[in-house]
Amino acid sequence: MSFLNIDSVKDRTFDAIVVGSGISGGWAAKELTGKGLRTLVLERGRDVKHITDYPTTMMQPWEFAHLGQLSKEYIDANPVASRCYANREDATHFFVKDAEHPYVQEKPFDWIRGYHVGGKSLMWARGTQRWSDYDFDGPARDGFAVDWPIRYADIAPWYSYVEKFAGISGNKDGLAALPDGEFLPPHEQSCVEKHFTDQMAKRYNGTRPVIIGRCAHLTKPQPIHYQQGRAQCQNRSLCQRGCPYGGYFSSNSSTLPWAAKTGKMTLRPDSVVHSIIYDEKLGKASGVRVVDAHTKEMTEYYAKIIFLNAACLNTNLVLLNSKSSRFPNGLGNDNGLLGKYVAFHNFRTTISAEHEGFQDTTTEGIRPNGSYIPRFRNVFKQETDFLRGYAAGFGSSRATSVDTSAMGEDLKASLMQPKYGNWRVSSHMMGETIPKETNYVALDSALTDAWGIPQLKISVGYDDNDEKMIADFHEQMTEMLTVAGFTNIRTHDKPDKAPGLDIHEMGGVRMGKDPKTSMLNKWNQLHTCKNVFVTDGACMTSTSTQNPSLTFMAITARAADHAVKEMKKGLL
Amino acid sequence: MQRRSVLKNLAMTIGGLVSLPAWASGWTPDSLGAISTLSVDNEALLADIVETFIPETATPGAKSLNVHKFAMRMINDCYGEAAQTTLQQGLALVDSTAQQTYNKPFSNGDAAQRMDVLTKVSASTDPTGKAFVDMVKKLTIQGYMNSEYYLVNVEKFNMAPGFYHGCVPVSKLAVNGSK
User: How much is the pTM?
Assistant: First the structure.
């Protein structure tokens, strides 16, 4: 028996464990296996193999019974999941069902999740902009959070590193607030978007640039992408179904198969991580406890280093649930900050308008991208009565309509000849929210999920700063659209829209210089448990306005590089 | 079999790296499935109503494209109970209006008579009449304009390879026959 046990422990021992297989977990898996570490990748949901497990990806629009619309039964059963813009009839199989994975909303919060191999990297919106020094400097300058322990120079080479592999399209715009990257050719702006770009450059003297979005699409694949088995983006814009071409970056099409090719990766789906095991004698973490999603049986796995990439809020949950006599309040939580200072991006409001010009032009085809307005508020100096700022998406299309007043052959004839209306544009705000101690997550003291793990209690809301920012977005965008000749300008704030639908939750395990005021050091190691690395959204000290995924990728690759170097020095 | 050829093209696009997944051969063209929310008679009546909105000419009409089945599916699955009641009551109203006006079932009327009946139902003092006609007309147009026939032949829809041009002259598109 004892021999068997020893063998069993050996079988469950790896060099590294990665918890989670989404955007950051995939990168951890790729980097750690690439450096020769035998790596166990744990995913709480089912396996999703690239192409094979994208059941709707080649379906034609008319093959869906409801033309993409969600059924009433589904919406009634899943009010949270069905509010996500990407969750349509073709993608429900990738969204967590409300009832299966309950959580406690101390304040309303729409927690959107994808529990399967690849996580939300399959359903993300693929915006990928770098941060600049103005973003990493922000907290130190404004005093709204603790100082970041890193600056742009620390992460710039890692941005380049992940951009080349993932494939990011964009234009070299030369903006101080939004550094250029290693870009594949950019998508094209429509003539009305170009007009807006030109007008802004002229009227605001270059202080309010409008650019084509930077996104994780292979507009012109390079050899490294073909080596991954990926091909050119086909402009289908059906990304939420999973892309059979690997046209956009996902863990499933890119990092995970790359990690698998090393022969060093063991991917274990259906493995719900319960907690991290802390070994008091060694003074560090020795492994993780895993509940089998189906049998509910608990197994321990061991490794020298652990990368926690469960996605922001679940990473917080795992750490909070990792209790030991050394850490009674959660792993690494001597300062009581774990789960606090959660922040997000405010997507509550949009603005729309029309342009009566450009009547002789339209767009043709589909573009899985839009234009982008980088943050122009409080970038170089504090100039408003609110902290930080907002970026915005900006899209356009030439509307067509048909006259439906008749019936019979007259109606049929008019359906065959759609009439062009005005160009329509719309813009959505992506506002930075301020990390606050009162925006927190914690374990519920009574409720557990189906795997015996405490439910997460989420208490995250808007504040006055967010309201001021929304008002400023309305005011500034109205002015900008007006000077560019747009008409019928309308704002659409939704005060009832809960945080969470932005799917940009960040923080709770923030980085910082001082163990008294932060959880992680500049290498994403827990200050008080150095062989545990947190490199998903939980590590973010502040949120800035850019889509966060690219930064998670770069931070993960950087931390993995450091982890392996430290391991080789015998320091972990 | 259309899916298979799409996948074959896909496999060629990326240099034979893709093996056909299991579900590729499991496709059936009738994605609507069986819908038994209406009696056979009422289903036939609904088919004649959608055909009255968009009739067969040199090109298919709404009935032969099964737009009535699409409408039934949407009302049953997406619209809620009030709409289901409107559907049932509206069909009865169409039948009784046809009998009162022309002394024959709706389906036996010619195109002009059928249109007249629907106009009368819409103007009825019973508010269900207008709600029914508006709902079925909207679904007929939606179903027709998203049918395989319309998307392929009128819209020239092609899933892949796609493209995007940000600024093209409207006239050029009119010549090409798409919108």
Answer: 0.93
